[in-house]
Amino acid sequence: MPDIDRERAWLLTVDGAPQSYVDLDDPEHLEFEYVRRLAHVLDCVGEPGAALDLLHLGGGALTLPRYAAAGRPGSRQDVVEFDAGLVALVGEFLPVAGSGITVHVADARAWLAAAPDASADVVVGDVFGGSRVPASLASVEYAREVARVLRPGGVYVANLADGAPFGFLRGQLANFGSAFGELALIAEPGVLRGRRFGNAVLLASRRELPVAELSRVCAGDAFPARVEVGAALARLMRGALPVADADAVASPEPPEGAFSLG
Q1: pLDDT tens digits, 35-69
Q2: Which end of the chain is more exposed for a tag (fewer CB within 10 A), N or C?
Q3: 20 belongs to a structural domain
Q4: Nearby residues of 140 by Cβ (< 8 Å), 6 or more positions away
């Protein structure tokens, strides 16, 4: 069950695992590594500070939408969260009224299917059932729906989790590689080398991604990460095929302690 711990700077946990961190006084403060990398992508999309239309699949405590509202005033943000209890909890203790953020209690895949064509500048995928990405968001049909909803220069960015030999991650890259012309992957070097299970942020677009800028900010972050593109990404994807809805599976169960507070 979701729980908010006021003693630990508004830390939201789900089934004992840390899920979101919110500082109501400083929405641009980001505690978790993967959220910082998602935010770096938002910072590099379009003109600095310009308002964007964002669709967030997965809500948590709305850390990333709060960040975008602070850094890009006037942005229109729809957040789709399946867990009604979580939405009520966050609404009571961590409200976002007047921020341009609208939260919808719905299934992410169903909401995406009903969304208008070319209606978003950015689609953020951060949906976890417990500690796993659901199979419904792990297929090539899902990737094509994302491509339909994004505007021509739009960007998809997703928080994924996997470990060597990266069967799930490679399938996701193949899915989005078949639907988009440009791909990139952001991860900590130890994860990319297969030394540990961890988060990886996938980017996809029809237009050139801001790789140089992203590489600079990710390398200089308090939690340094690499941006993989081109030949390095092709090696990781070699032999991977798109995964149809009928064959899609959830991301692997993380090893015990992989995402604990330590």
Answers
A1: 999 999 999 999 999 999 999 999 999 999 999 99
A2: C
A3: yes
A4: 174, 175, 178, 179, 242, 243, 244
Domain that holds residue 189: 2-247
Please check whether residue 243 lies inside any domain of the structure. yes
Lookup result for tokens 């993380």: 254
Place of tokens 């791909």: 183
The structure tokens listed for 195 are 């030394």
Q: Which residue has the tokens 């792990």?
A: 138
Q: Does residue 157 contact residue 124 with C-beta atoms inside 8 Å?
A: yes
> In the 8-state DSSP scheme, what is residue 218?
H
Rounded to the nearest angstrom, the gap between the alpha carbon of residue 242 and the centroid of all alpha carbons in its chain is: 20
Q: The tokens of 66 are what?
A: 């709060």
43 in a domain, yes or no? yes
In a domain? residue 260: no
CATH number of the domain encompassing residue 112? 3.40.50.150
Sheet holding 76-81, edge to edge: 101-105, 76-81, 53-57, 120-125, 150-162, 198-205, 182-187, 226-228
- Tell me how many domains the chain contains: 1
For residue 126, what are its two tokens? 């951060």
The pTM of the full predicted model, rounded to 2 decimals, is 0.93
Crossing angle (nearest 10°) for helices 167-179 and 140-149: 40
Span 130-152, pLDDT tens digits: 889 999 999 999 999 999 999 99
